[in-house]
Amino acid sequence: MPTDTTLPPLDPFAGVPDKRYEVKAADLLKPGTGGLLRWRRQATNAPIVQVEDAYITGTFDLRAADLNFLFRFERCRFEHPPDVREATLLGLVFRKCWLPGLKARNLRSRNDVRLIRSVVEVALGDHEVEETTTIQRGDDRERGMPNAAINFTDAVIDGSVVLTRTMISHPNGKAIQGDRLVVTGALLAYRMVAKGEVRLPGMRAGGNVNFSGATLDNPDGFAFNGNGLHIGGSLLCEVDSYGPPSERKRFSANGILYLPSATVDSDIVLREARLTVDQQGPVVVDAWKSGDPYLDPRPALVADRLKVDGNLELSDGLRAFGTLRMVNARIGGSLRLAGAEITMVRGQAAPYYDRALHLDGSSIGGDIEATNLRVPVGQLRLADVTVGGNFLAWNSMFLHSGRDAFSARRAKISGNLQLTDATLKGTLRLQGAEVGGSVNLFGTVLTEPGQRTSSSFSLDIRTARIGRDLVLTENKERPFLAEGGVNLDGAQIARRLDMNGAQLSSLPQHGIALDASDVAADEFILSPAEPPVGSVRLRRAHCGSLADNEAIWAASDGLELEDFRYDALKNGVALDDDDALDHRIVLLRKAMRGYRPGPYDQLAATLRAAGNEEHASTVALRKQQFRYEALAKGFKIFGPGVRAWSWLQRSMVGYGYRPVRALGWLLTLLVLGSLWFGLGTDSCAQDRSGRFAISGPRCLVNQQDTGLQWNPVIYTADLLVPIVDFGNKSRWYMHGTDNWVSAGFTASGWILATTIAAGVSRMLRRDS
């Protein structure tokens, strides 16, 4: 160190100082016996060697030295990188120093290694600096030779590594290389600035790795390479709040955070971080250029197979421009995305490579918290994800027009999926998902759905399994809106499908506002705020209770109700409310736009199960009426005959559902016939020629039937009842008008008997 103690403190960052501060590195060391080094000067008897305010020229070389000293340099500037490769030291400290590099491969330090408020800057184009700290080009490149400003490869630090407020610059190489670095304590890099790659693959740290407030800048590659590292504490890349609020410093990375196969025993925290990757820049890894559609060639974060025992915090103001990729990751706690913003450049050609969040195959032990998550451009992909808790995303915004904005195929969520007041442009796809609790989409707005050849739904929950409710309802004044319709085909809902106040539309090319075919639930609440624009499909769906309104039956393209079954109506038809029943039948007929027997049978069965047998029969009667009307339209020539036959059955016996009518017609005809034949007379009774046997006012056909007594009531009954013969109709002589009247009564009897038989057969088939 300088001998002139009157000199002002050295500013090592102001360039090459004058000669008065110069200390030759060779003069700091003198050879001793046995080849050991003996320090020329020590401030105290303590094992600390301290050098202050010195410009150290030459190479400070401690390579392979084994010294029980802690070396402390303060306000020093080095002409060449200090060399402590393979050395064993008590400790090493650089405070407010300027270094052109640090060679520390295989260093063994029994205490901390610290570079605090220092600058490590590789001099570009300095050919005298060895290859371990310079850029290597062309013939100068040696395979396997590290290229870093600070080289900690295979070093073992029994304390901590502290890089607080240090600036490390090697823009075209590696700022730090620490392959297989072992740190028994923590790695603390508060507000560190690194220009070049921070490379720590395989590192083992016993405590936290803290980059809070740090700036990592390597835009054409990895800003941080932590492939396979193991951290015994937490990985912290968040805001450094030390000092007044105006001096808060966010963590930022311009380049890829690369953490595949990393293991963190506690938490990973990137609150308020800034992650940026140039989406038009080069693809860093050759394997990512393969064209595989499941790759993300320009990610901001890669953490495939990551294992975190605690929480993963990507929240509270985090801004990422590039994919956050965590495929097949294992997170023991919660994944927090609340208040984050992730955006991409929209892909123009398939495969689009514009996923904002990619979590395929990952397992999260706790919740996924995505409240106020913003994705202005890009897709959230969570295929085959397992969530031990809830998925919570109130007030979120996912914008990916014309494509899948949120895709969670076959995801398994033990709790609830809560997407309240969310805004999505694109399709929300939950096909095959399993949710142990409820799927709540209160007030969620889905517009501009992804368009495919076969379908274009805003919400796709086909074949999903939901343990409680599926709620697609309004929230206060904000409706649930699905511009492209809702597809629930084959979904199984344990309790309730609630669409109260929903607004459903469809795209013109497919025209399906709601497809609930094969859906099963305890309760359907199908009461949208307005008639759906498009068709509503309820084929083979089944629910225990159905609550509806006029709007669902007024869908612009009608309803498909084949084999739609419901056990009860939540708002049933009262026994004395014929108008309500008539209104429901009108709605049902208009909705189907054609004759289909199944929906009428279902309504009748529901009414009958509720004890409303009379209204059930009314529905069945109207069904037969509509059936004959449909047949009459089909049989153009015989249509009038079909209509007449229908009228006869309806008026006489109500198609078998009004048997009292048959008795009424029978009694009416019996009275009319009795009056006609009883009050009338026959001219043959005045014929005394002996051609007829006369009994009272009527003549007998056979002379031998003189014992037969005339009874107009029995005679009329004999005419009306076919097949059965009471012994009257063929024994009395009728002619003229009486002959035609008797023939009419006989024909009426046959018609009445036929219609009764047809009605009874239908009743028997219905009961069976």
Automatic annotation (TrEMBL):
<keyword id="KW-1133">Transmembrane helix</keyword>
<feature type="transmembrane region" description="Helical">
    <location>
        <begin position="660"/>
        <end position="679"/>
    </location>
</feature>
<protein>
    <submittedName>
        <fullName>Oxidoreductase</fullName>
    </submittedName>
</protein>
<keyword id="KW-0472">Membrane</keyword>
<keyword id="KW-0812">Transmembrane</keyword>
<feature type="transmembrane region" description="Helical">
    <location>
        <begin position="740"/>
        <end position="760"/>
    </location>
</feature>
